[in-house]
Please model this.
Amino acid sequence: MSGDRTSAAPAASRARFDPGSLDAVNFLLADARGAVGPYLNVYLVTERGWSLSALGVVTLVSGVAALALQTPIGAAIDRTRFKRGAIVLALAVMAVGAVAIFLRTDFWWILVASVMIAVVGDIFYPAVAALTLGLIGRRRLAQRTGRNAAFDHAGNVVIAVMAAAVGWWFSQRAVFLLVPVFALLAAAATLSIPAQAIDHDRARAADAGDRAGRRAARPGWKVLLRRRPLVVFGICAFLFHFANAPLLPLVGQVLAFAHPAWATAMMSVCIVAAQAVMLPISILVGHRADRWGRKPLFLIGFAGLPVRAVLFTLSHDTGWLIAVQLLDGIGFGIYAALTPLVVADLMRGTGHYNMALGAVATMTGIGASLSGLVAGVVVDAFGFDAAFLTLGLVAAAAALAFAAAMPETRRDPKNDPARCG
Model:
């Protein structure tokens, strides 16, 4: 009986939850994160005179630290009942790191700040996914994950425009001061979500009354490895990001060689345009995922990636490259909106939802990191078109693997009592 009363109280509180708070969290977190990553490398090389080797060391160390901690951080999010506090703490650390970059640019100072920012960046994805599941439940999760992704993409568009304006009117260095501003706003949005509205059992996919959920205190590593569809999904995610991650940088390099004076502006156009496409795609996916299923939608995203890679080889005209890059909005828009939903399907009742999200994020991070090196070697040896075709082959392998080995994870609503929550 006590368990019933415990689950009933959060359900009552969730009725008072304002969805606009979660919208604001997703939008403002994108603004806070986006004011660091894309601009730090350019600032250090162009304005502070850093060597590419020194920059490479910072990128490598911070990237390895982030990859190593993604899955443990997801496991910690599963266990903690202070998910809002975790987001606020991560925002505070990110703001301190950005201010540190603004103040000084010596090697060790930047290295420590970059590692801090990279590590706390691991917190946002599983923590927001946990809040979403804990607040919304499974019944409306598909629409809500699509809406989350849409507000995230909208935030990315806004911060790209704002950073360009600040960099133009003031300096590249001033862009980093946007981080504490948006971090403060994001923290306020996070704390506007009532703590009592979060069902922490649901937030880790351990539904009340589910026997598997009551065993969730056990170590989760075996739980992850024993779920074959999750392993298949992780491998497909690795291949998808291996193929996708280098495409935009390669396009940027082609544009830079053709139009050195306008390369940065055209790169910004590519980023903003793709994000603008991702926004409606995310909303569409959220509305259709329960009707059409997860697998058909994911196959559209996976199938579009090799097509995009091959289309880049047909012409290096500026307009053509930018137009083809818009297809990234479809592929990645589908991936970003559906991944939390598919992992929630696969981890239902385990209590290790956020740990699984961290594991998938680790796989995608490894794929993206390795592919940059491979693409660079292919470009040096055979040229840009060979690199595009190589990545296209990997993307085709990802699509075929997903089609052949990945099952549909949506459950029939008529036979799924858990969806009532």
